[in-house]
Write a structure and sequence with these properties.
five-stranded mixed β-sheet; alpha/beta
Length: about 170
């Protein structure tokens, strides 16, 4: 399979950040790798540093050409949402530091791209990721969500490239 694009999807989390990488060749997708980064410790700054170091190692090892990051889910706990935004900033920063274009997607947009329904539940997303990437064998929900973000971007990347070409 001739690869047109390698995409890393990132599901940001302060304790656990999922990542998933797919290769795109035309309309065909293939699983490359996935995992979950677990940041340790109670100190926010040290967890963010740990997250940055580990995510940088993933990007360097797998050499994606593009990144897709899931938007932060905003809940009623403002402090929790703000802390999660710090992790999301790392998820945006690391690909940018490595010269990757970064696209951001709302959770409903990712679900719609993968399942066909914007309000799909986690089980439906996991089922479709397993169907689309049968060799993935994903065990962790954070990695499923990251692969779903990568799949969403893979579906949208051709249209984004055409729009960028027209804008020039």
């Amino acid at each position: 399979m001739s690869v047109n694009l390698r995409v890393i999807g990132i599901d940001p989390g302060l304790r656990h950040t999922g990542w998933g990488i797919v290769d795109v060749a035309g309309s065909r997708l293939s699983h490359v790798a996935h995992g979950v980064i677990s940041a340790t410790g109670e100190d926010l700054a040290l967890r963010l540093h740990d997250l940055r170091q580990q995510l940088s190692a993933v990007v360097i090892r797998w050499a994606p050409a593009s990144a897709a990051v899931e938007h932060t889910f905003v809940n009623k706990d403002a402090v929790g949402t703000l802390k999660l935004a710090h992790a999301r900033a790392i998820a945006l920063l690391v690909p940018a530091e490595n010269g990757l274009p970064v696209s951001e997607y709302a959770p409903n947009a990712i679900k719609k791209a993968v399942v066909g329904v914007g309000h799909a539940d986690k089980a439906q997303v996991a089922h479709m990721v397993a169907m689309l990437l049968p060799t993935a064998k994903v065990q962790k929900a954070d990695a499923v969500d990251a692969l779903a973000a990568a799949i969403c971007h893979a579906h949208r990347a051709p249209a984004l490239a055409r729009m960028a070409a027209v804008a020039k």
